[in-house]
Design brief:
With about 200 residues, this protein is mostly helical. The chain folds into 2 domains: about 10-95, Orthogonal Bundle (Rna Polymerase Sigma Factor, Chain: A); about 100-200, Arc Repressor Mutant, subunit A (Orthogonal Bundle), CATH 1.10.10. Helices cover about 70% and strands about 0% of the residues.
Length: about 200
């Protein structure tokens, strides 16, 4: 009895040729194959769900319009991921970035999370509430950084990517990545120190 057929990896060269010739089925298949990877990038760097679909449409419009510029110097999914990251970066630059993370901006649950985390007498219980509130606090902290710092720290410290991987994805130089990481971490450390002083008073 023959084994059931399984989906084979996409033939990107063939897909690019077909899409460039206006093959609609190939374009749909390209979107389906790339969509999960690119959606993860969008959700990671632009977590507000209201922006997701519009941004994904913009990303695929850029991918299709730039297919002739793909030089095969890197795998096609990496090339598409770079377009997605740069589109997220452009969107973050268009958004207003908060100049400072203030304790007064927090809700009651988030304030309690900060106080419990930073205070020496903090409760160490493993309830789900602090984890959820902690995630929201992290997002607020990251949102206080400029777009480059925010994206670099998310990739380095949360996604555990190397400087080399970030270079490949963004096209940024090693010095730009390292300086952004240093400045972003310094800003977050200063913010946490202010919150710590507030929590223990």
């Amino acid at each position: 009895m023959p084994l059931p057929e399984t989906d084979s990896p996409p033939d990107w060269d063939l897909a690019i040729r077909q899409v460039s010739r206006g093959h609609e089925a190939a374009a749909r298949r390209m979107v389906e194959d790339l969509y999960p990877q690119l959606l993860r990038i969008v959700r990671s760097h632009l977590p507000r769900a209201a922006d997701e679909e519009d941004l994904m449409q913009e990303i695929f419009m850029k991918i299709f319009s730039k297919l002739d510029g793909y030089r095969r110097e890197q795998p096609f999914p990496h090339w598409a991921a770079r377009i997605a990251l740069n589109t997220c970066y452009d969107q973050l630059r268009r958004q207003r970035v908060r100049p400072e993370f203030r304790f007064a901006d927090l809700g009651e649950e988030e304030s309690r999370f900060i106080e419990e985390t930073l205070s020496s007498s903090a409760s160490q219980s493993g309830s789900e509430g602090p984890d959820r509130d902690g995630s929201e606090v992290v997002e607020r902290l990251l949102a206080s950084l400029n777009p480059v710092e925010r994206m670099v720290l998310r990739m380095l410290d949360m996604e555990r990517k190397s400087v080399r991987e970030i270079m490949d994805l963004t096209g940024w130089s090693p010095s730009k990545i390292k300086v952004a990481a240093m400045r972003g971490r310094r800003k977050l450390a200063d913010t946490l120190k202010r919150l710590e002083r507030r929590a223990v008073t």
